[in-house]
């Protein structure tokens, strides 16, 4: 889908959903926890529980606002296809401009919790007067930098697409990696970066995403497995597990493991065949002459 992901890490082995990791766990750990521990805004004499509660709520609201702003930019500017950095950078700024009044109220509420002390003064709310624009952007900087950085990590390192656009004719610009006619290419390849488009090998569901394996690499996209299998047409294959589908011409070996089994693909990847699919899969590979 437009922007290639040069490196892919095994995010599927992390026992949390990618959306939960991006929108809840990471902002709380990277932003809310340090701000709460140092009692920023709430005051050094305030309780840790109060500071944690305040900053957790504030960070999550700000983080979701950044996501809202980025999604707004992504959809409104689709005609110009801005890069990921522009979408994620503009998102928090747009959200702050639209929501500056509620944000100012939140900061005022924080000050009401603060125990008076010599180390902290009145917190400065987000104001839009020209003379305080520098303060406006300083307040936005930590969250904005974190938002941009994490979106790039998810998109470029973990292979989880973030604000990507389909690129018309990308197959023709992919350097001739796949020489089949465009009509013969599965629709699923619209969800795969050009550099990863090769021969389709397998599809694996991971939470709300599917991982797409090709002989050129692998990538992830937000999609149900049932929809991904339909979009794999005209590539023939079979579902071997409630979360796995494999292409017929990618199968190289199969062996039983108790009531289940393991199938080895042309790229060396081994995938489990569940008990409920094992007998039908054995019949299927005998029909293909692979048994």
Automatic annotation (TrEMBL):
The chain crosses the membrane at residues 20-40, 52-77, 84-103. PROSITE patterns: HTH_LYTTR (PS50930). InterPro entries: LytTR_DNA-bd_dom. It comes from the Bacteria. One of its GO terms (molecular function) is DNA binding. Keywords: Membrane, Transmembrane, Transmembrane helix. Residues 190-287 form the HTH LytTR-type domain. This is HTH LytTR-type domain-containing protein. It comes from Sphingopyxis lindanitolerans.
């Amino acid at each position: 889908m437009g922007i290639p992901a040069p490196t892919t890490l095994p995010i599927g082995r992390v026992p949390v959903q990618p959306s939960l990791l991006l929108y809840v766990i990471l902002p709380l750990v990277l932003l809310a926890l340090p701000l709460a521990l140092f009692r920023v805004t709430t005051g050094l004499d305030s309780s840790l529980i109060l500071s944690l509660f305040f900053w957790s709520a504030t960070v999550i609201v700000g983080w979701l606002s950044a996501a809202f702003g980025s999604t707004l930019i992504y959809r409104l500017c689709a005609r110009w296809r801005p890069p990921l950095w522009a979408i994620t950078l503009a998102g928090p700024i747009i959200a702050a401009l639209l929501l500056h009044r509620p944000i100012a109220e939140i900061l005022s509420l924080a000050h009401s919790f603060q125990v008076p002390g010599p180390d902290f003064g009145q917190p400065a709310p987000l104001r839009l007067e020209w003379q305080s624009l520098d303060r406006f952007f300083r307040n936005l900087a930590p969250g904005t930098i974190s938002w941009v950085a994490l979106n790039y990590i998810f998109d470029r390192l973990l292979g989880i697409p973030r604000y990507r656009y389909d690129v018309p004719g990308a197959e023709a610009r992919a350097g001739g990696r796949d020489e089949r006619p465009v009509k013969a290419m599965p629709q699923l390849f619209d969800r795969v970066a050009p550099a990863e488009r090769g021969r389709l090998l397998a599809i694996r569901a991971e939470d709300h995403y599917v991982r797409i394996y090709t002989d050129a690499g692998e990538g992830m996209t937000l999609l149900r497995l049932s929809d991904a299998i339909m979009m794999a047409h005209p590539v023939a294959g079979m579902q071997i597990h409630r979360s796995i589908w494999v292409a017929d011409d990618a199968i190289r070996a199969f062996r039983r493991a108790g009531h289940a089994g393991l199938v080895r693909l042309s790229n060396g990847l081994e995938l489990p065949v569940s008990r409920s699919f094992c007998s039908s899969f054995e019949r299927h590979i005998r029909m293909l002459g692979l048994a």
